[in-house]
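User: These chains co-purify. Model them together.
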Amino acid sequence: EAQVTQNPRYLITVTGKKLTVTCSQNMNHEYMSWYRQDPGLGLRQIYYSMNVEVTDKGDVPEGYKVSRKEKRNFPLILESPSPNQTSLYFCASSSLLQGNEQFFGPGTRLTVL
Amino acid sequence: RKEVEQDPGPFNVPEGATVAFNCTYSNSASQSFFWYRQDCRKEPKLLMSVYSSGNEDGRFTAQLNRASQYISLLIRDSKLSDSATYLCVVTSNTGFQKLVFGTGTRLLVSP
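Assistant: Joint model of the two components:
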């Protein structure tokens, strides 16, 4: 089954404790991205990757890091989480060959205390 | 001004009603347009792409007006299962695959 998976789905952590949210897709998509969704602000792009070893900042990259060592994986790293990073996070992948439809993972609800 | 603007709603309609949402975008260079559907606490899913000539998929019709920079979504014969948030999405001028999402319009269909 074609899908994007994220882990963990739910996470409560404390300020400053490094964490990683994993994202993996099995559709051989070249493009992957991370979004956060907050009430009244909609989905905002954090980082994106056009292909392996190619990443770039989105609209709200502060406090986040990413890597793309393999085509299928695109982890999101919070080196020192803060309460303002409490949000719902979505990973997505797409391919120009498939009309640019973005396929989203199920989301990760993160709470930073 | 937001790059993509939508009325947040909620739109409360009875089953069987016809409802329309509009969305305006500010980037005249946008090339691709979409409507996504998002159920509560779930991931967004593509509902339909929006083409210049307008397009229809069952009860759903999407229209694009480039001159006025807005897109619309019409839902006929609303079902209870249509209750969701509808996200207007356009491509950014920074890249074909970068999408800009509106904040969504909430639809509630009641019996």
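Chain A has a mean pLDDT of 94.
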